[in-house]
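ok so for the tutorial part 2 we go from a plain amino acid sequence to predicted structure tokens. step 1 is just haveing the sequence, like this:
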Amino acid sequence: MKKIITLSTILALTVFSSLLALPVQADVTPAPNPTLEDACGLDIALVLDVSGSIGGDLGTLQTAAKGFVDAFLPSTPTLMGLVSFSSSATIVRDLTSDATDLKGAIDALSSGGSTNWKDALIKGTSLLEGGLDRDDTDHPDLLVMFSDGLPNVNPLDDSITAANQAKMSTSSLPIRIVAVGVGSASTSTLVSISGPIVSPPAAVTKDTDVIMSNFDDLATTLGNLANALCDDANGCVDCDHGPDIVINDNEGAAINLVSAEANTGGNYAGGSYGGDGGDGGDMKNGNEEEGGDIEDSSTGAGGNGGSSGEGGAVITGDASSTAGALNVVNTNYTDIDRCACQEENCCEDECCCDLDLVRNRNRAIAFNGVRARANTGENMADGSYAGYGGEGGKMKNEGNDIEGSHTGTGGTGGNSGPGGYVETGRSDARAFGVNIVNTNITRIRR
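step 2 — the prediction. this is what the tokens look like for a chain of 446 residues:
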């Protein structure tokens, strides 16, 4: 038997499908979204929709969410927790500053199930009011919820009621909600749990309530949100709330006394001594029985003394002496970065965006007394000695009277050689004094 579908049936189905796509009219009045106070570091609940409709776009959502984490951690003193929701919600990670752990938890998410906004908002509120929540006056609470559709587990009124409970929290400061819509999300429905300021068309600021995006632009959308929150609420980037004043008063005096002296020492090389003259020759006379006295006889002449040599040459080495003094006085390096506030309570007493005052006062006297001296010491080399002259020859008498006789000439003394050489080693001395006085490095990072 054929089934007949009439035109009226088709129209009825079309109207029914359209009604399912529209947000359900709510009877609960949304509470105003509280203002996010300026502070150095937030407590953020990151609430992600992983219902079945996310499907193949889950990877895009995960990448964008991890970029959102990186925008705050570890560069700011923010704590962030993770809630995932589909048919029900789960607190995946409590508030933490461990970006690696958070991103690992985001990567482990899987999609499937329905969309339960009510439970997502309740679990996000519970995370922000749990035991790890810090003082809201120093670290305001922010709930950022991503969804690609409409709540289909509970009536919309239940979700608005849960959102109102967060926005009117009885803690020191209420929780602000930012809703990010992707895919087929309804702007008006997201406004009902957050607030009326929608981007686009409005620019993303810390006062934005709803951000509409698509999966392709989701990473950019979250980046804009992170920048807006960090710039305005977290006081970490381009903060114009107060001037930075750095005063460096430096007084320094450097006195250097430098003396350098080079001396190759005492050097002496004596000339050689002349040789002694040779002795005259001996003459031997016989006795009276053998010839008697020989008058007016003389011995031969003594040999000539040897000539003395020249004094030895003295060759001294190079003498080099260097002395110097270097003073670096009163060097100041100041770096102010308002985004590197790492400690949890780094801005407890003064907001990061208040006045930064750095004052360095330096007084220094640097005194250097430097003396360098090089000396090769005493050096001496004597010349050689000349040889002695040879003895005169001998003459022998046999008794005859030989007048005017004499002995042979003595030998000539040997010549002396040149004096010895003196070569001194190289003399090298260096002295140096360095003073680095009053170096200041000041860094203010937020």
